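agent> step 3/5: call structure_predict on target 'F-box/LRR-repeat protein 2 isoform X4' (Sapajus apella).
agent> reason: downstream docking stage needs a structural representation; sequence fetched in step 2, passing through unchanged.
tool.input:
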Amino acid sequence: MDAQKSRTVRLLFFSTCYSLSRFCSKLKHLDLTSCVSITNSSLKGISEGCRNLEYLNLSWCDQITKDGIEALVRGCRGLKALLLRGCTQLEDEALKHIQNYCHELVSLNLQSCSRITDEGVVQLCRGCHRLQALCLSGCSNLTDASLTALGLNCPRLQILEAARCSHLTDAGFTLLARNCHELEKMDLEECILITDSTLIQLSIHCPKLQALSLSHCELITDDGILHLSNSACGHERLRVLELDNCLLITDVALEHLENCRGLERLELYDCQQVTRAGIKRMRAQLPHVKVHAYFAPVTPPTAVAGSGQRLCRCCVIL
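tool.output (status=ok):
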């Protein structure tokens, strides 16, 4: 897109936001996903006239900075859901502005906002005690300090997505579990430092847990699954469990999961110690469970001289 066209698009979006502000004062729900020409000025226009806004999706609007967020939340103090996925210019100060003005906020998505650090999350938690859903996936700078802040300030938390937050440990999740008993869904994919200790704490303190992703958590073992399956959430609530690339999981874990009578979906891709026979035995007890797994075809032995060409079943000659 040349400079002139780009300027035209920016003016169009500014004009649209100005019109929304002027003529839609009762607007409550606005989705601007991937409107990449949205700028800080656009948000200022929205904030001046759409003060009843409760839901705003700005995902992948990557020109937005802390200044735009400040302008927005000063005017739209009743926001309950704010989606900022892929707003890669946002820094901790943006969360400070949200904390200062959005005390009704219950859902915040910060996926792939990679500049966010513990400082911003701590600030956020101090002012947004009603948070029920928080996505921090891809915020790779975060440590247990963020989990501590959530545990001490956000007891209503139901959904936490922290995929690819590779610095989080058992210590942080222990404090979180002991204080956030309403947790229903957790995405901990690639939280590579956590062990069975985290599962033990979730089993004890989070009886409402329904969906748990542990993909690529390579320190999880059958013993952790035992505690999970014998817990209140395992017996009554657990519906989805993702264990892709958990290399220490074996058929023994599947035997434990037979206690999870409500389980609906189990992900086992690249769990190399799980066998077809183990899955078959589990499904005999839980026939309604959808199990997703992959078993690489056995490669035939190398052809001897003079015989025809042989290929494994996953190969195709083009």
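agent> step 4/5: record observation. The CA atoms of residues 264 and 289 lie 5 Å apart.
agent> proceeding.
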